[in-house]
Amino acid sequence: MATYCLTVARLQLVLGQGARRFHVAAALNAKAKVAMSRFEPNSSINYDQLRSNIDIVRKRLNRPLTLSEKIVYGHLDDPAGQEIVRGRTYLRLRPDRVAMQDATAQMAMLQFISSGLPKVAVPSTIHCDHLIEAQIGGAQDLQRAKEINQEVYKFLASAGAKYGVGFWKPGSGIIHQIILENYAYPGVMLIGTDSHTPNGGGLGSICIGVGGADAVDVMAGIPWELKCPNVIGVKLTGTLSGWTSPKDVILKVAGILTVKGGTGAIVEYHGPGVDSISCTGMATICNMGAEIGATTSVFPYNHRMRTYLEKTGRGEIAAVANENQDLLVPDSGCHYDQIIEINLSELKPHINGPFTPDLAHPVSDIGSVAEKNGWPLEVKVGLIGSCTNSSYEDMGRAASLAKQALDKGLKCKAQFTVTPGSEQIRATIERDGYAKLLRDVGGVVLANACGPCIGQWDRRDVKKGEKNTIVTSFNRNFTARNDANPATHAFVTSPEIVTALAIAGTLKFNPETDFLTAPNGEKFKLEPPTGDELPARDFDPGQDTYQHPPADGSGLRVDVNPQSNRLQLLEPFDKWNGKDLEDLQVLIKKHNVSWVVVGDENYGEGSSREHAALEPRHLGGRAIIVKSFARIHETNLKKQGLLPLTFSNPADYDKIRPDDKISIVGLKSFAPGKPLEAIIKHSDGSSETIELNHTFNETQIEWFQAGSALNKMKELQK
Q1: Measured in Å, how far apart are the chain's first and last C-alpha atoms?
Q2: Which positions are catalytic?
Q3: H/E stretch holding 598
Q4: Are 384 and 393 in contact (CB under 8 A)?
Q5: pLDDT digits (tens, 9 = 90+) for 426-473
Q6: Cis status of the peptide bond prior to 354, with omega within 30 of 0
Q7: Torsion of CA 418, 422, 428, 431, to 10 degrees
Q8: Positive or negative CA dihedral for 697, 702, 707, 710?
Q9: Are 73 and 79 in contact (CB under 8 A)?
């Protein structure tokens, strides 16, 4: 049985057929022991089970499989009986592990506590990265966050200890970078309570962003449901070089597919161009796949992943993956629902924005486009880092540009911030001199956290409402996303382009062709950035920020202050009363009456947070009627007992007036594939009936009838 287990004391590697076992002694230095302690004893790789499931499905479907199909179908709860139709059937899956960031982990753990179960059924971790506000600098901001969020951190640490969940303390780094460094591996299926969980696809993993209630299902040992994804193939040819970076691949793809073009699909990269991209570069591409609505993205296993695994202390995993490489690449002749081809040798540096991540421009054009549209040309702030672009390679390439500027006596004209993705990255770039170069050119190194990328930025250089431009290496740039200022024009691009524009101070600067002026009057061009893919020496893990759960936490108490304004134990929602929903008021009201939200396209875009479903439910919301939903939010609504419904005819959206009342009828015969009806009652006494579609399956209808998925879970335990 090809199983791989890691423990603090030793590495155990089981290879080959049956009895061929190897034990690798843990002759580890102190830093390696710190890194090894991050793995749970029950963290395992079982390619035999993956192979068995894939063989069953391939025989049933009688066709070649894409890589994403292999990994997804390889995790089916019932590979022999599961109906498999792309884009239509719901798959019941058994993910290998769960990861939660601290903003969403609060609700996930509160729901898990309400389930009454004693311990999580799969390896799970909590990562403290979302609650640290960027204000002054890394150390000061981290200390401030620990004080402000003390009760949240205590709750998460104590809940993790009691229920068997690993806890990464504040300052450890961003969830997705920690997963890449420690938990992702080729062929794993991981779900995470953050929309950028697909970052792990850079290591050949299927990593999918979900809401907390989905995480509770997996932690409870219940099969997790996912609509069978379509598969979009992106064929890469040519080779990356010069100023072009992995970020430009996804910026180009976003321009092609738009923010909803990947909805319901996994984006699978393949082709000879893949080998010119580093493992962390592949992670960057997969990370930002969330911005096109993709379920996740993935790359095939190759030597770049093997090298990364070896450098991050997981050479034994690489050895097992090498022996099972046929499972970790697509079959020859497999079918994609859509194909996009990109020649990396012809791809130019891109910058996307403002206000949406799919408005793509070549960097060479952005100055003239900005002038034409009246966008501010002056770059006020350049921000590099985040979960999307904070690898050792990213920091090295940015630092190479900083050194060129410093050698000529130049510093950044714009403000410049640097966000390391993890404590390991921070410690290693400090050791190797990158951090000093970035500070010397004018940068401020922030805490190992999400920071400005998610809006945790106490920005003070412009007033709210003041029109200005920032450039970032982040993944999102929706209105007011980074600094709560709706007048900020945010552009996303690669760390090296951000650094170049921060040095020049203007969007009109094209680093491929334009010159900078040194203080002595000398004109010079920046040479294309360079940087090592991985450190020549091993990574420095830095401080140990991981808390491993005890073997038995049953006697421990979860720390929830009864007087807290931020946390409270959950009470169950009311069950469905068996009747149609009648006379629902339109839009959100807080007057103790039932109401319905009416929305437009891609409703719920951009977040995995359940609060957007829980709060309407608590306030009397019963249904959300829109033209289309973002995947994670639609599931979150179902989990909390609301009805996410779509117009059969999108033009019916215009029939609804703000003072209407709506009745949703047909609930007594609520069934998969059968539309419901809405009776729209206008204030003038007239009414009209429209048809509403839904994507509920039988299990999800039971969630609605029980009042929530959590209520149904508790019913099944009786």
Answers
A1: 36
A2: 129-130, 194, 476, 607, 609
A3: strand 595-598
A4: no
A5: 999 999 999 999 999 999 999 999 999 999 999 999 999 999 999 999
A6: yes
A7: 60
A8: negative
A9: yes
> Would you state the pLDDT for residue 608?
67
pLDDT(7) > 70: no
CA distances (Å), origin 708, targets 103, 578, 579: 21, 14, 16
Among residues 334, 324, 332, 330, the alpha carbon closest in space to that of 51 is found at 324
Yes or no: say if 259 and 58 are a contact pair by the CB < 8 Å rule.
Answer: no
- Has residue 71 got a pLDDT over 80? yes
Long-range contacts of 14-17 (CB under 8 A, 24+ apart): 15/319, 15/320, 15/323, 16/323
**DSSP class of 521:** S
Longest CA span, the chain: 81
Query: Does residue 4 have a pLDDT over 60?
Result: no
Q: Is the pLDDT of residue 19 over 60?
A: no
Of residues 577 and 69, the one with the higher pLDDT is 69
Model pLDDT, residue 570:
78
Among the ranges given (301-310, 348-357, 598-607, 641-650), the one the predictor scored with the smallest mean pLDDT = 598-607
Look at the block and give the residue holding tokens 């076992």.
21
User: Rounded to two decimals, what is the model's pTM?
Assistant: 0.87
CA atoms within 13 A on the CB side of 553: 19
What beta strand segments (E) does 363-512 contain?
379-385, 415-419, 443-445, 468-472, 488-492
Q: CA-to-CA distance for 24 and 21, rounded, in angstroms?
A: 10
Q: For the chain, what percent of residues have pLDDT higher than 90?
A: 81
Q: Residue 703: CA atoms inside 13 Å, Cβ hemisphere, count? A: 22
Percent of the chain surpassing pLDDT 70: 93
Question: Which residues make Cβ contacts (< 8 Å) with residue 29, sequence separation at least 6?
Answer: none
Q: In degrees, to the nearest 5, what angle opens at C-alpha 337 toward C-alphas 333 and 339?
A: 75
Task: Kindly state the tokens that stand for 100.
Answer: 């939660």
Q: What is the DSSP letter of 422?
A: B
Q: How far apart are CA 635 and CA 562, in angstroms?
A: 30
Would the CA dihedral through 564, 565, 566, 567 be positive or negative? Answer: positive
Q: Is 173 helix (H, G, I), strand (E, B) or coil?
A: strand
Cα separations in angstroms, 430 against 128, 167, 437:
22, 25, 10
Residues comprising the chain, all counted:
718
